[in-house]
Sequence to fold (104 residues):
Amino acid sequence: MAQTSVSIRVDEDIKSTAETLLSQMGLTLSAATNIFYRQIVRTKGIPFHITTVELDPEMEARKVFGEAIRVAQQQSVINNRDKITMDEINDIIAEARREARTAN
Fold:
């Protein structure tokens, strides 16, 4: 598959922090960007919820759970499995909660 370059403008501090976090995960900015683009293609949209209003805690919990189920279903398809285990769902929910806490 032919590759192309992409140039974006981003706040220097955000870029530096993202590079540090991605490095800890064994990823580069380029790899993370490729993952993001692939998820856009796979989900046919932005692969996370974007909003300008704060959600109430109950609505946020439902959103986190729904997202966890969606991700688990995607993983089961990727891994050619018919079922999702509760441990997988719980792991995804825990990760989504950690991400929500750090985003706020």
The chain has a mean pLDDT of 81.
